[in-house]
């Protein structure tokens, strides 16, 4: 059911790779809620081609941009305001990648060049988006910027490798830039900390299936789906959440506040019998 929450709003949505992507679901919902927006992804991701189907469904133009390139991001913001006919009201940062995780490099044997690349792609890129937007004065007053995070920013998850550092930095940038941009233009910046979700980025993590199941059993509501994460993002882009900023918002079915669940206790008891 649509509510017209984003009627008249202009946006930029990054990170839609295929229909499992969280950003893909956000784009579909944003369209449903009346927004117009551009889509962006790394030039290399364009080769997979699926994003063209999404663009068609959403009447959206695609502007390729490598999230590590300031020049690409400058082009992304200036083209987006031109195409959409005015300043931007919402931005989704849904970008993450660790070369160390992808190549199964252990935490005690990290390749530091890869680590720096991963931090640049997954965290510093949020700063680049915001700095470019501010310099171009590309965002409207009360615009809302949302990036996607994971609870490994607060707690250790052995399989998550150096992405934990990337998410901690991402959340810190959301706070620091949220303060700056809030003072300057009432722009708000938040992160949504999402449950494990079956996507290309998620399932690239070793042991993901077991962890997905663990989180499912730990969360009273179960793991939050990509579609529901999209609903939350839409509410954060809407005018109904205007005074929420500089927050890391858990969207995880209650996982982050649960110590241990009955389901897990039962499972362990059964194993020990
Ligand atoms: N899937 C999960 O379990 C989960 C849980 C919590 C948070 N997240 C976060 O959600 C976000 C979206 O991930 P997803 O799960 O939808 O997976 P996904 O693989 O569909 O999306 C990741 C996107 O990052 C893009 N990307 C990678 N390098 C890039 C670059 N240099 N420039 C521009 N874009 C680049 C990819 O092309 C892809 O579209 C990520 O930040 C991820 O860490 C995912």
From TrEMBL:
PANTHER family: ENOYL-[ACYL-CARRIER-PROTEIN] REDUCTASE, ENOYL-[ACYL-CARRIER-PROTEIN] REDUCTASE [NADH], CHLOROPLASTIC. Coiled coil: none annotated. The active site is at residues 150, 160. Pathway: Lipid metabolism; fatty acid biosynthesis. One of its GO terms (molecular function) is enoyl-[acyl-carrier-protein] reductase (NADH) activity. It is an enzyme of class 1 (oxidoreductase). This is Enoyl-[acyl-carrier-protein] reductase [NADH]. NAD(+) binds at residues 15, 21-22, 95, 167. Belongs to the short-chain dehydrogenases/reductases (SDR) family. FabI subfamily.
């Amino acid at each position: 059911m649509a509510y017209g929450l984003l009627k008249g709003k202009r946006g930029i949505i990054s990170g839609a790779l295929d229909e499992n992507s969280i950003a893909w679901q956000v784009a579909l919902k944003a369209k449903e809620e009346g927004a117009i927006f551009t889509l962006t992804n790394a030039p290399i991701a364009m080769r997979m081609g699926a994003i063209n189907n999404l663009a068609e469904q959403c009447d959206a133009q695609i502007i390729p941009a490598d999230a590590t390139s300031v020049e690409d991001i400058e082009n992304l913001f200036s083209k987006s305001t031109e195409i959409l006919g005015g300043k931007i009201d919402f931005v989704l940062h849904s970008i993450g990648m660790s070369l160390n995780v992808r190549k199964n490099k252990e935490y005690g044997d990290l390749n530091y060049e890869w680590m720096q690349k991963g931090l640049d792609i997954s965290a510093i890129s949020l700063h680049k988006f915001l700095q470019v937007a501010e310099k171009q004065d590309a965002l409207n007053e009360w615009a809302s910027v949302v990036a996607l995070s994971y609870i490994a920013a607060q707690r250790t998850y052995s399989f998550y490798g150096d992405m934990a550092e990337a998410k901690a930095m991402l959340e810190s940038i959301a706070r620091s830039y949220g303060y700056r941009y809030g003072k300057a233009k009432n722009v708000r910046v938040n992160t949504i900390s999402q449950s494990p979700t079956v996507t290309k980025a998620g399932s690239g993590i070793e042991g993901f299936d077991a962890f997905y199941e663990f989180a499912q059993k730990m969360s009273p509501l179960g793991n939050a789906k990509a579609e529901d994460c999209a609903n939350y993002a839409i509410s954060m882009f809407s005018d109904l959440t205007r005074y929420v900023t500089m927050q890391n918002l858990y969207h995880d079915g209650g996982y982050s506040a649960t110590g241990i669940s009955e389901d897990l206790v039962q499972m362990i008891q059964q194993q020990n019998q």
